[in-house]
Design brief:
Blueprint: H1 2-30, E1 32-40, E2 51-55, E3 64-67, E4 79-84, E5 94-95, H2 103-134
Antiparallel strand pairs: 1-2, 1-4, 2-3, 4-5
Helix pairs in contact: 1-2
Length: 136
């Protein structure tokens, strides 16, 4: 049972890594740069949150969304350039010139590798234990 749980968790971590890698690449390829205004200042720290920005999309919408890479020292009302996904402008945006790093993807892939290794180790130990129990 344990190896199966570890494999499921490894798959989840791999998907987590793929999601963050794809998100960053998508904004690099298809993101639209526009001017935004800080609507809510972000806070740093363990339980901090991203700054929220508001901007006008190509369609004239005015969403207020988190900015994952915005500098924490920006104050409410300040203007900055951001990049957003034109297919989903309600997704978090990134500050232009400060792209999202691959940390999220790297974290997911490392987690997947560790869990896969633990699954293989657990399986090998169980097989070894079963073989030892069968010997007279």
């Amino acid at each position: 049972m344990t190896p199966v749980v570890l494999l499921v968790l490894a798959a989840g971590c791999g998907l987590f890594g793929w999601y963050f890698a794809d998100k960053g690449e998508r904004l690099d390829r298809f993101g639209i740069t526009t001017e935004a205004v800080i609507a809510e200042q972000g806070t740093s720290g363990r339980n901090g949150h991203s700054a929220k920005v508001t901007f006008v999309t190509e369609n004239g919408e005015r969403p207020e969304v988190p900015c994952d890479t915005c500098s924490k020292d920006l104050r409410k009302g300040e203007r900055l350039d951001i990049r957003y996904d034109p297919d989903n402008p309600l997704d978090p945006v990134e500050q232009a010139g400060r792209p999202a790093g691959p940390e999220g993807a790297r974290f997911g892939w490392i987690g997947a590798a560790v869990l896969l290794a633990l699954s293989l180790l657990t399986t090998w130990l169980r097989i070894k234990q079963t073989r030892a129990a069968r010997r007279p």
